Structure formats: structure tokens, C-alpha cells
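Predict the structure of Inosine-uridine nucleoside N-ribohydrolase.
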Amino acid sequence: MEDIILDCDPGHDDAVALMIAVASKDINLLAVTTSAGNQRHSQTLRNAMSLLTLMKRQDIPVASGNTKPLMRSLISGVSMHGVTGLDGADLPAPDFFSQGIPAIELIAKILTEHPHKVTLVVTGPCTNIALFLSVHPELRSRIKQIVILGGGMGLGNWGPTTEFNIQVDPEAAKIVLDSGIPIVLAPLNVAFEAQLLSDEIDQIHKIDNSVAQTISGLMDFYGISFGRQRWGFKGLPLYDPCTVAWLIDPSKFTSKRCNVEVETKGELTTGETVIDYYHITNRKPNAEVLFHIDRQWFANLTIDSIKSFNF
Ligand code: BDR
Ligand code: CA
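Done. Here is the predicted structure for Inosine-uridine nucleoside N-ribohydrolase.
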């Protein structure tokens, strides 16, 4: 059983990552913290709480993170995720309270109190985790590993070579990657492969529970905003769930230990992850980088997770 804190910015694909984490018998979701990313911090907090209300998991503590990236203004993800960050679904209003402490203090509390080391899963910009490491260095040893959705080796989805989460807060990503804590990085190379095909989305539409209805609405909106024809993809890539999927079964992925640096000063490439696949530099590998996923397994995991909600 993997004990995790999910730091996210829901976001359609964050919602699926959260849903899989809640459904999984292999994951113990200790808390959810939210970041400014796909939407403003107040909206991503609300979205996370709405999703937990939908899944009847109001017992999971939630806290909101920083209002903006460490050194930059927030880039808006509205073109992908709509004005609410979760357009396309009619979500319930949150019916519980957040913890009323900053995300970094909730992370500190859980790491202090939990008897085992905890995995941090990051499906938004790295802002909260970078702040946490700076403010609470004494708790670093309580972190088992940090699993991040972000970056790309030669691929971009926001700029030609930049991925959204890293581009939003490159300085934060650099702090986390340079931290010396074990890192697993799921870049676009693997995330572009984590696709649901049309018939699999149809299967989700036919599942008779309220979580399926919500995910169906989200996928319909996301499918349009993603515009997969433009990318030449057969299916709809769901980035963020790669993180929790890897925790559930790493054998379904291929990976390689590489050095990963973040470009923070590039003229055209700020926010790019420079992944030294062939170990061309002498820089020490600092991350396990995921490259491929068993797509069919991933689709089955997503569908089975949705089916497991019996209300
Ligand atoms: C990442 O950007 C966000 O829009 C998604 O939620 C995901 O975390 C993919 O680049
Ligand atoms: Ca996200």
C-alpha cells in the first residue's frame, strides 16, 4: 500500500488521477493539496473538494496552496479546461471544509504524524512542493519519493519544447528536481501514450454511477478542447493519471534513470526539461524518467476504477 499526498490543480486529467487514487486498493490517499495552475488557486481548491464530495470521500483532508508561481505570473489553462477548470460536468458543491491551513502546513502535519514515509504525487506546477522543501527542510527525510507529471524529452504541449506544468513554474520544478529526493518524472513522452480510445470513452458513458456520469462529461469537454486531430492522436491523452498508474504497477511502464535539468533562462525554451537520455553530460541522474506505458492496461485501470464506485 502506497501512502500518498496528491498535489494537484484540477483540471480534467487531475480529476481522473484523483479518481483512480481514491478507487485504488494499492493507494492510501492521506491528503489532497491544490496548486494554482489550470485555474486560480481558489478554483482548483473548490474543484478538488467537489470531486471528493462526488466520490463521498469528504474524510480526506484538503488544503489550498500558493496563489501564484514562485517568481512568475500564472499562465491560464482555460483553453484546455474551461473557465471552471472542470468544464463539461455538473459537479456537486463541496459539502465539507478545507483544513484552513496552507498546503505546505498540511503536508508538514501529515509527514510528521504518519508512521511511514509518504510519496508526494504532483500533477500541477511544482510550486507547493518547492515551497514545502524550502520551509520544512527538516521533513525531507519523511518523503519517500516525489512522482511528477511534467516536462518532455524533445516534446511540448504548451510551447514547442515545453510542457504546461513545468512552464508555469520552472523555478519550482528546478528546486524539486535538484532536491536530491528520489524523483519519478512522467514527461509528455509517456503521457501522450496514456490515451483513451473513443470506444473506451463510450464504455465510460454506459457505466451507471454518478462518478461515471461526471467523468463522461469531463471527457467530452476535454476531447473537444484537446482537439486530438490536430495532434494526430488516435485517442485522448490523459496526462496526470500516469503518476498514480505508475504507483499502482510500475511494471506497465518503461523507464530510465537520467539527469533532468530545467531551463529557466532560455530565450525560446524557458520551462523545458533537458533530459540527458544518453548520459552525454557528467551530470548525475536525478530522476527515474518514464517513457512508455501499456496503453490497454491503463485504459482498463481507468474504466475499472470508475466502475468501482457503487453509487
Ligand atoms: C498538464 O497540464 C495540465 O493542463 C494538465 O492538468 C496536466 O497536469 C499536462 O501538460
Ligand atoms: Ca494537472
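The CA atoms of residues 127 and 172 lie 5 Å apart.
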